[in-house]
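Subgroup meeting minutes
Present: P.N., E.W., G.H.
Scribe: E.W.

1. P.N. recapped why we're keeping a running log of single-chain structure predictions: easier to compare across weeks, and new members can see raw inputs and outputs side by side.
2. G.H. added today's entry (202 aa).
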Amino acid sequence: MRAQRYINLNNRKHPLRAIAFDLDCTLTRPYLDFTRLRQQLNLPEGDILKWAETLPPQAQQEALRIIEAFEQDGVENVEWNNEAQETVAAVRALGLPLAIVTRNSRASLIAVTQRLKLTVDLLIAREDAPPKPDPACLHYTAKQLAVPIEYLLMVGDYRHDMDAGRAAGAMTVLLTNGRTPSWPVEADLVITRLSELLMYID
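Output recorded in log:
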């Protein structure tokens, strides 16, 4: 039986049974230029994946081709984010189940994990469940890991991660990578480096 772990959030100890990490700019070094992707798609703002779903078949096919090429570029240039590899190893040593929950395709997710030799208990891509900010992907994650959603921690670098976590009823940690977010932050904890997370786990 695993030892019970806790995380200190908002001056309280909360039971912690599993951690879901975002992929891009969380476990991997910031590289992808989403501004450039939006220019290619001619979409200044809004959810890219939801927008693509509304397109006529031919336009949707072209948009997905651009998105997949963008993701493939990310695969080919992927590197661990600062202190991410050590943080994952430390969390695994604590006996906590780990998931990666990303809006990326399953093909690009698997390719990244293979390149980084990154092993976790569960991989959730956009084909597996409605992607963030939809909370369904985190409910699916909690179910697959057999943990109550309120004992699942979502760690990510963007508002979609926090919105999905809050809506699902999970705990949330925002990783800023040292940058001030351009949107209102609603998270249980804000950290600048991934390794800071370990300071809050007992």
